[in-house]
From TrEMBL:
<dbReference type="Pfam" id="PF00570">
    <property type="entry name" value="HRDC"/>
</dbReference>
<feature type="domain" description="HRDC">
    <location>
        <begin position="626"/>
        <end position="706"/>
    </location>
</feature>
<dbReference type="InterPro" id="IPR013986">
    <property type="entry name" value="DExx_box_DNA_helicase_dom_sf"/>
</dbReference>
<keyword id="KW-0547">Nucleotide-binding</keyword>
<feature type="domain" description="UvrD-like helicase C-terminal">
    <location>
        <begin position="290"/>
        <end position="551"/>
    </location>
</feature>
<dbReference type="InterPro" id="IPR014016">
    <property type="entry name" value="UvrD-like_ATP-bd"/>
</dbReference>
<dbReference type="InterPro" id="IPR000212">
    <property type="entry name" value="DNA_helicase_UvrD/REP"/>
</dbReference>
<feature type="domain" description="UvrD-like helicase ATP-binding">
    <location>
        <begin position="8"/>
        <end position="289"/>
    </location>
</feature>
<dbReference type="InterPro" id="IPR010997">
    <property type="entry name" value="HRDC-like_sf"/>
</dbReference>
<dbReference type="InterPro" id="IPR027417">
    <property type="entry name" value="P-loop_NTPase"/>
</dbReference>
<feature type="compositionally biased region" description="Basic and acidic residues">
    <location>
        <begin position="581"/>
        <end position="591"/>
    </location>
</feature>
<dbReference type="Pfam" id="PF00580">
    <property type="entry name" value="UvrD-helicase"/>
</dbReference>
<protein>
    <recommendedName>
        <fullName>DNA 3'-5' helicase</fullName>
        <ecNumber>5.6.2.4</ecNumber>
    </recommendedName>
</protein>
<dbReference type="InterPro" id="IPR014017">
    <property type="entry name" value="DNA_helicase_UvrD-like_C"/>
</dbReference>
<feature type="binding site">
    <location>
        <begin position="29"/>
        <end position="36"/>
    </location>
    <ligand>
        <name>ATP</name>
    </ligand>
</feature>
<dbReference type="InterPro" id="IPR002121">
    <property type="entry name" value="HRDC_dom"/>
</dbReference>
<comment type="similarity">
    <text>Belongs to the helicase family. UvrD subfamily.</text>
</comment>
């Protein structure tokens, strides 16, 4: 393949990235801007021009799927032979190759696929009682520490500094950490972090190994650079050995894995650390409609903190599409029913089920949507987690509740009975535990209690033959039967269907239609996000969710978790959700829209969704060209000043500056056109409409003022 074919079809920024000279290159690539295209074409261009040999390039990414896609694209571009691997795969290959030399002839130790079992043994040795969930959380803490280059003796101080919430006292976690390291050495096994460390050690401490690796790999490309952790960066530095032929690509606004040790600091500091670096910004979004892009920009525009320094303002490249649908429902159940029905409608109108996704903050939220989709006969798949009723803690809880029927008095109120039954599993209603896995398990069981509350609060009438109807039995036995029915209904096998996924699991994916659900404070952002940095990461989660949608986007929340529950505020990160949305009851299709609520509007120039009040008044983005009639604007100002003086009110009470600019740009000639300007309602139309129309028609400010006030 010739180089002109590699350059064909690239936009100017992509072309700059592809043809940038050797040396440090930083590609800041927004969602949907073609980052994989840019870096694969850059690699292919450099190999086809003879600048580098394919065998001397190492391209590193974070998932095997992304690495496979990169290799496939490079082969199509004529750059076969380039090594594209994850950090772990590249390190494993090198450690295995050099093991005889590094280990003095001994075989490479066995690699642990999972830490949990050995961490559980280490916990027992350290005198820490940890069940399976506790062991998973301890393993996560150890992974964070090792990825952050923190030793057991340093853990307690480092965890406090990083504002970690470990599952046990930091000193105890440190003891388990030390016991885990000792057990591994005794059993002759290593974990994935050890493997990365071994690769670093092999290069840093063995000059012959370093020379061989560095002669093999001379040019490096790192994808998703905002997700690199300190250990991975240490390995990258070892590979480079002081050289600077490095291309990194990332988006600080998609930094959502800080809890694992990933940090965007290396991406943010790249230009400062490498003064000669070429920095290219990819902002042309080819994935989403301008309406979706506009909403994404509005979400991330308010970001603060270090990541916001590299914030990108995306520019939609696709034809205009539907406005994002912003909905408020009385409760989560009503929200789920409405979402399921819309999914069914989308599928009926030709959208493949596999091109639809329902995204939420935590996996525990999936049950409501699983039930609603099952009842609507919409196929679905759960990504990145088990279906709700297949989760081990839910199966255990259902067993406990069936057993509790024999021990809990029948007259005990249902919710109290469920809480007492769950207490037997160790669950405590008012005490969410620290640790990610334990907290997720706690939330799943809390979802069972919420189901019980809803079941008890809204008992339906069931028909009984010819005798009419009786009220549903609200007992623990009846509730257990209801859960079994739901489990059976939701366990039906599916081949392809609507994707249910958490926002973290959705990273790197995209769909034609996306439902972002549960957008209420306390859920997104989660109540566990307390520091400014944690809250900003929650904002970025919403941004990632918005940018998953290609054509159609729905955003919603239930005003309460269940019928009659405590009211919640809308997600603080979504601009004007409450004012720009309609409140609906699930299934109420005859309800007329609330005309008092302004609808989401689009820029009349580029089609981007407008959410800021001033932008909606103007009817365009602040960066789009203005067609202001300056002479009309001057007359409007003069008339406003005279009117305000006569009425003895401040000028802005008549019309704001932004409204005058909108009038001078849009030149309304009739009531409908004047009402189309955001913020102008029937009262202002009645007060000032005739004056505005006269001014637009060419009358002077003095003429209109004389006519109005004599």
């Amino acid at each position: 393949m010739r180089t002109d074919a590699v350059l064909a079809g690239l936009d100017p920024e992509q072309r700059t990235a592809v043809t940038a000279p050797a040396g440090p290159v930083c590609i800041l690539a927004g969602a949907g801007t073609g980052k994989t295209r840019a870096i694969t074409h850059r690699i292919a261009y450099r190999t086809l021009t003879g600048e580098v040999s394919p065998r001397h390039i190492l391209a590193v990414t974070f998932t095997a799927r992304a690495a496979a896609e990169m290799r496939s694209r490079l082969t199509e571009l004529g750059a076969a032979g380039v090594q594209a691997r994850t950090f772990h795969a590249a390190a494993l290959r090198q450690v295995r190759y050099f093991a005889p030399r590094l280990l003095e002839g001994r075989a490479m130790p066995e690699l642990l696929e999972s830490k949990a079992r050995m961490v559980g043994l280490a916990a027992a040795r350290a005198g820490v009682r940890a069940d399976r969930t506790g062991a998973r959380d301890l393993a996560s803490e150890i992974e964070w520490a090792k990825s952050s280059l923190v030793e057991p003796t340093e853990y307690a101080v480092a965890a406090k500094k990083a504002l970690r919430e470990p599952p046990f006292e930091p000193a105890k976690v440190a003891e388990v950490f030390a016991a885990y390291e000792s057990l591994k050495r005794r059993q002759g096994v290593i974990d994935f972090e050890d493997m990365l460390r071994a690769a670093v050690w092999g290069i840093e401490e063995h000059p012959d190994v370093a020379e061989q690796i560095r002669s093999q790999y001379r040019h490096f490309v790192v994808d998703e650079y905002q997700d690199v952790n300190p250990l991975q960066q240490r390995l990258l530095d070892a590979w480079l050995g002081g050289r600077d032929d490095l291309t990194v690509v990332g988006d600080a606004s998609q930094t959502i894995y800080s809890f694992t040790g990933a940090t965007s600091a290396y991406l943010i500091d790249f230009p400062r650390q490498r003064r000669e670096a070429v920095v290219i910004r990819l902002v042309r979004d080819y994935r989403s409609t301008p309406q979706v892009v506009g909403l994404a920009n509005a979400v991330i525009r308010q970001a603060r903190g270090n990541e916001a320094r590299l914030r990108l303002e995306l520019v939609g490249q696709r034809p205009p599409g539907a406005e994002p649908e912003l909905k408020i429902f009385p409760d989560e159940a009503g929200e789920a029913v409405a979402v399921a029905r819309r999914c069914r409608d989308l599928i009926a109108s030709g959208t493949p089920a596999s091109e639809i996704a329902i995204l939420f903050r935590t996996n525990a939220q999936s049950e409501t949507y699983e039930k609603a989709l099952a009842e609507a006969e919409v196929p679905y798949v759960v990504r990145g987690a088990e279906r709700f009723f297949e989760r081990p803690e839910i199966r255990q809880a259902m067993i406990a509740m069936r057993a509790a029927v024999r021990s809990i008095p029948g007259e005990t109120p249902l919710v109290q009975a469920v809480v007492e039954a769950l207490a037997a599993t160790g669950w405590q209603r008012e005490q969410p535990p620290p640790g990610g896995s334990a907290r997720e398990q706690w939330e799943a069981l809390a979802a069972l209690v919420a189901l019980a509350e809803d079941y008890a609060r809204t008992p339906t009438l069931e028909p009984i033959g010819q005798a009419g109807a009786v009220q549903r039995d609200v007992t623990l036995t009846a509730f257990n039967d209801e859960l079994s029915r739901r489990a059976e209904q939701q366990h039906a096998p599916t081949m392809a269907g609507v994707t249910l996924a958490s926002l973290h699991s959705a990273k790197g994916l995209e769909w034609d239609a996306v439902f972002l659900t549960g957008l209420a404070d306390g859920t997104l952002p989660t109540t566990y996000a307390k520091t400014p940095e944690q809250l900003e990461e929650e904002r970025r989660l919403l941004y990632v969710g918005v940018t998953r949608a290609r054509q159609w986007l729905w955003l919603s929340y239930g005003q309460s978790r269940s019928t009659g529950g405590r009211a919640r505020r809308p997600c603080r990160f979504l601009p004007q959700l409450e004012r720009n949305s309609s409140t609906e009851r699930a299934g109420d299709r005859s309800r007329k829209p609330d005309r008092r609520r302004p609808q989401v509007s689009s820029c009349r120039v580029c089609g981007t969704t407008l959410l800021a009040g001033a932008d909606r008044k103007l009817g365009r983005c602040p960066t789009c060209p203005s067609d202001l009639d300056e002479e009309l604007f001057e007359r409007l100002q003069q008339w406003r000043a005279a009117t305000a003086k006569e009425l003895k009110v401040p000028a802005y009470v008549v019309f704001t500056d932004a409204t005058l600019v909108a009038m001078a740009e849009r030149r309304p000639g009739n009531p409908a056109e004047l009402l189309a300007i955001a913020g102008i309602g029937p009262r202002k139309l009645g007060q000032y409409g005739e004056s505005v129309f006269a001014l637009v028609a060419g009358a002077s400010a003095e003429e209109v003022a004389r006519k109005n006030f004599g």
